[in-house]
Amino acid sequence: MRVQQTVAVGTAKRWLKRGAWLSVLALAVAVPLLAQVPGPDYGEFGIFGLDRRDAVWIAAQLHLLFAAFVLGVPMFAVVIEAIGIFGGDKKYDKLAKEFTRLLLVAYSATAIWGAILVFFLSTLYPRFWVYLTGIFAPSMWLYAVMFFAESFTLYLYYYGWDAWSKGAAKKVHWVLGILLNVWGTIVMLIANSWLTFMMSPPPELTADTAPQSVKLWSAIANATWMPINIHRLLANVVFGGAIVGAYAAYRFLTSETDEERAHYDWMGYTGNFIAIGALIVLPFAGYWLGREIYEFSQQMGITMMGGFMSWLWIIQAFLIGILFLTGNYYLWIGMGRIPGAERFQPYIKYMLLVLVIGVIVWATPNTMIADRDEIAAMGGQQHPFLGVLGVMSAKNTAVNLMILTTFLSFLMYRQANKRPVVSWAKAGTVLQFAAFAVAAAVVLFFGIRGYFVTAIVRIGFSVYQVAAVLATIVFVIGIDVAMSRGAESRGEIQWGKMPPRSQYALLILAVTFTWLMGLMGFARSGIRQHWHVYEVIRDTSEQAFTPALGPAATMISICVLIFFGLVGMIFWLGGLAEKSVYEEKDA
Amino acid sequence: MTNLKILFTVIATLGVFTFVANVIPQVQSAVPEEIILTEDTTPEELAAIGAEVYAGVGGCTACHGLGTRAPDLVGVVGGTCTTRVEGQSCKDYLWESLVNPTAYIVEGFAPIMLDQSRTLDGAQLWTLVAFLESQGGEVTVTSDDFAAALAAADAPPPPPPAPVDPADIDPRQLMVAQGCLACHSFEGEGQQIGPPFEALRGLDPEYVLRGIVNPNADTASDFAAFAGTMPPTFGDLMSEAELSVLVEFFVTGGQ
Fold first, then answer.
1. How many independent structural domains does chain A possess?
2. Where in chain B is the domain with CATH 1.10.760.10?
3. Is residue A555 within 8 Å of residue A57, measured between CB atoms?
4. Largest alpha-carbon pair distance within chain B?
5. pLDDT value at A373 more than 70
6. Do B23 and B97 form a contact (C-beta atoms < 8 A)?
7. Which of A60-74, A363-377, B52-66 has the lowest mean pLDDT?
């Protein structure tokens, strides 16, 4: 086993070193040289029929996907390691280490794509790159330092896993994991400041402002920086969980022993649990980000929600509908391997009904660009019937009920094989049921009431709906944890006894999460329209227009396909290395 | 075989997403083009320029199109404009709505719109009228309509106004003339779109000045829903002396 790790990790280490050096080298060379050399505004690119924007788009998207993975995974690797340390169950420690092994290889890919992105930016958009470095150069150097700190900590964290596995040394090792998260988060915060500056530059900035005269902190702490930071932190956890789930699904499907299948079934469940759990709170962070965008610029907000991007949100609703349905489907299949879960089966069809209706309502269009014929056919700007479902009152109600339903699926899954023994178990169950009923009633009440009040009052209602759902989640979990103490088992979960379709559901979840990230990235970047820096630095290249959803979707799919191709290769290489070691040992 | 199934799952999922995104209506955001307005400009070109003004410098979409602050216009106003005021043509109604927006208020909406001639020139206003007419109606704006506006644009800029003694400026009159009460209230008059002026008493004069000349820099939390409504043009519309007098008036509570 030890030899097997060395082979796989040795490959990862080489990748890691190359990637890290490439990325830092790119920053070190590009920043000082290009900041001094005058030249054209844009460089030429024409490989594989791609233009300069396509090249930057692909590099940025792939860098971001790998980066999201390497930032998300350490968060829950540390939490799972802590569960292993403080709960005393070794299987959690093994799982955390396996997560981290994936991290090593993905980290190198992140660095490589980061280096490609820097080279593309500095050669294809030299003038704009010089402008950015004029403002952000000190933060770029800090980025490089943090990158080294993160790399070094990751080495220590992974390679020290077995050496520091007992007593106080194990806790020190755990602290290393926390440090890894700290460095990674700082790296993300710095990079986020660059891109959010392009979206929401400080209000005093004009086209005539010399970049060197811009105060660094005002450029960093711009209007959308913190909302993006929070949104990305949560999204990275979701994404990390989904990719781990996909890895586990791949390993499950290619496993040859029941033991392996049991392990990867459990790993897939854990990854999916993390992904869906974080997804539940993600819309709230998204709401905050949207609000900040509106506060920064009404024009930008309207472009995003009601302008040429309005159809994008229908696609988003379609994707999130798939996530909710597939996530719940996976859980419902999973109940088949839990003794005692059969008592919940009759309710599933009703939960499915709520989810389907929720998706339909959420995907109903409201305000969007339509031509004269389309408006005439509808009899107005809004459809006479569907227009009622397309407003925020209906949509907020739908999404909150979908979140409640998904949480109910998790709760049923969690309680399936338990028989509480505490004296107040019956009262606890009634309280949980009542909490769900009250939350649903609050959500419905404010959803309906929203049709009869002014917009300013209606906007405030969404806060009550969200608060009711979050409070219910916290309250019900609290009761559940207390009620589960000393609970009798109705039978052990039969890990590994899952039909293959459940694993394909995990793969679809991972692909959908990834594609959704690409789509939201397009939305965030696209609302700048023909500006490099919104209303400050104009994009004068031939690619200044913002593409329609179709071409954008094609580009996103290409990026996702490359990403999964690379990830698949990493998974395959890892399996190949393990296989060769097994054969060597057998010989 | 398993690897092929996995590959198929990934590609099929991506294929569905790509297909759905390609079959919905495709709207591309084009870069605004600079179009020169001349007497030969056709109604279609006028409407096209007006569309740019509507979505851009006019800032119309900050309120119109949301369905809550102001009536939706796109696609419909060219038809409804003739039904608003009896005997008034569509062109006249739309022009009046731009330069004297409180003359007729559509039922269910508050009188929050400002006189657009303070921020847009005559030619831009006529292109807006043309664009709005095109939304469900026929464009009737002609070169005669905007000839005067073009002549004004070609005329040499007026000499800068003579310095005014701050003591001669009446802040109450200035407040009314600038249309501040269309959104703010003072001593019971005006609207509640922005904070009441009484709330500015005792505040830092520099903060109040910034709120006038750069209104989107800060937004009072109680009025966040109306963020972006106030035009950032008041710094240009008032002289330094007028701004100084107005700020002094606000921070001293109207003394």
1. 1
2. 43-154, 166-251
3. yes
4. 89
5. no
6. no
7. A363-377
Q: Which of these CATH numbers, 3.20.20.150, 3.30.750.80, 3.40.630.30, 1.10.760.10, describes B166-251?
A: 1.10.760.10
Which ipTM value was assigned to this complex?
0.84
Query: Taking each helix axis from N to C terminus, what angle separates B122-134 and B77-84, rounded to the nearest 10 degrees?
Result: 100
Q: Kindly state whether residue A477 falls inside one of the protein's structural domains.
A: no
- Inter-chain touch A507–B6, beta carbons under 8 Å: yes
Whether A245 contacts A200, CB under 8 Å = no
pLDDT at B132 over 50: yes
Q: Cα–chain-centroid distance for residue A518?
A: 10
DSSP A321-361: HHHHHHHHHHHHHHGGGSTTGGGGHHHHHHHHHHHHHHHHH
| Least confident window among A200-209, A348-357, B164-173 | B164-173
Residue A394 has pLDDT above 50, yes or no: yes
* pLDDT band per the 50, 70, 90 thresholds, residue A489: confident
Is the pLDDT score of A413 beyond 60? yes
A92 token code pair: 């959690």
Q: Which of A382, A544, A552 sits opposite B31 (nearest CB)?
A: A544
Q: What is the pLDDT of residues A185-212, one digit of tens each?
A: 999 999 999 999 999 999 888 888 888 8
Amino acid A122: pLDDT = 93
Instruction: Look at residue B27 and tell me whether its pLDDT is greater than 50.
Output: yes
Q: Provide the domain limits for residue A173.
A: 2-338+493-586
Nearest to B68 among A299, A319, A455 (CB): A455
**Is the Cβ–Cβ distance between A159 and A60 less than 8 Å?**
no
Please indicate, yes or no, if residue A463 is contained in any of the structural domains.
no
The predicted-structure confidence for A6-55, as pLDDT tens digits, reads as follows 333 344 444 444 454 455 555 554 544 444 445 688 998 888 889 999 99
Q: Which of residues 363-402 of A touch B (CB under 8 A)?
A: 367, 369-372, 375, 380-382
Q: Residues A56-84: pLDDT tens digits?
A: 999 999 999 999 988 988 988 898 899 88
Residue A247 identity: Y
Q: How far is CA A390 from CA A359, A385, A396, A443, in A?
A: 12, 9, 10, 17
pLDDT, average across residues B46-64: 78
Best CA proximity match to A366, nearest among A399, A390, A397, A394: A390
Whether A319 contacts chain B with CB within 8 A: yes
Assess whether pLDDT exceeds 70 at residue A564. Answer: yes
- Listed in sequence order, the DSSP H helices in A363-499 are 372-378, 386-389, 392-415, 425-449, 455-483
Q: Would you tell me the crossing angle of helices A392-415 and A425-449 to the nearest 10 degrees?
A: 170
DSSP code of residue B64: B
A442 within some domain: no
CATH domain B43-154 topology = Cytochrome Bc1 Complex; Chain D, domain 2 (1.10.760)
Q: Does any domain span residue A306?
A: yes
Residue among A203, A301, A511 minimizing CB distance to B13: A511
